[in-house]
Amino acid sequence: MFPVIFSTNFFELHTLWVFFAIALIISTIVLIRLSLSNGLKVQFISTNAWKIILWGIVGARIWSIINNYTSYFSDISLSNLFRLFYFWDKGLELWGAIIAATIYFYLLCKKNEQNFWKWLDVIVPATILGLAIGGIGTFFDGTNYGTPSSLPWAVNFDNAAIKYSVPIHPTQIYTFLYSSIIFTALILIGQNQKVKEMDTSGLVGLIGVASFCFFHFLEEFVRGDDALSLFSIRIPQIAAFIATIASLIVIYRRFLKKRSSLHSK
Predict the structure, then answer these.
(1) How far apart are CA 117 and CA 204, in angstroms?
(2) DSSP H/E element including 13
(3) Which residue(s) pair with 6 in the sheet?
C-alpha cells in the first residue's frame, strides 16, 4: 500500500489521484486516435469533454452518497451538509459516473445530430483502459478491496480503513487484468477488416460494456468493501448484472436479429 506520495502541513498528494490523472490523459489520447481512425469529429468530444467529465463526477458523487448515507447523514449539521460537496475525499462510485455520463452523452449526441453508436465504439475502449489504470491506483490506495482469501496471490493491506487483517483478494488487480484484456480484444475487433466493412456501429462498444460488466459482476462475489445490499446482494453487483443483460439484448436486437431476418428473406 502506498496511498500518499508525499505530504506537507498544507497538502497531500494521493496516489489514487495521480493514477486518476494518468488514466484520464492516456484515455483521452486513445480516444482521440480512435475517433480520427473512425472518421469522427474530435472537436465534438473536445468541446464537450469537460461537461461529460463533470456529469460523471456528479453522478459518481451522488451514487457514493446514497451508498454511504449513514456516514454523510449520521447527524443533521452544516458541516455534514458541506461534506456532500467534498468530492476529493475519494467518495466517488464507478456506476454513478457511468450512468450519469452515458445519459448526458446520449442526449448530447441527439441534440448535435451525432451518431451515438459510432461514438460508443471509441469511448468504451478508451474508458475501459482508463479503468484498468485506475485499478492500480485503487490497489495502492487500499480501496475497492476484496474478501479474505487463502490463494497464493492474496495480499495483506496495512490500513485501518480495511476491515480485514488477513490476506484478501486483490480485486483491484483483477480489475486491471480483465480491463486490460477487454481493451486489447476491443482494439483487435475494431481493426478486423470484416468488421470494418460491415455496418456494425455500436458493436465494439456494446461488446466492451457487456464484457466489462460481466467480469465486474463476477468480481463483486469477492469484494469486501461496504456497499448497499438488496436481498443480501450488493447493489453494484445487481447493476453490473442488469447492464450485462441489457447490453446483450441490444446486441441481439441491433445485429443478430437483423442478420437472421435478412437471411430468412
Answers:
(1) 9
(2) strand 12-14
(3) 13
Nine cell digits for residue 118: 459510432
Grid cell in block for residue 46 = 473536445
Q: For residue range 122-146, what is the model confidence (pLDDT) as tens digits?
A: 999 999 999 999 999 999 988 899 9
With beta carbons less than 8 A apart as the criterion, state whether 40 and 118 touch: yes
Least Cα distance to 130 among 208, 21, 244, 15 occurs for 21
Rounded to two decimals, the pTM is: 0.85
Angle (CA) 196 115 200, round 5°:
25
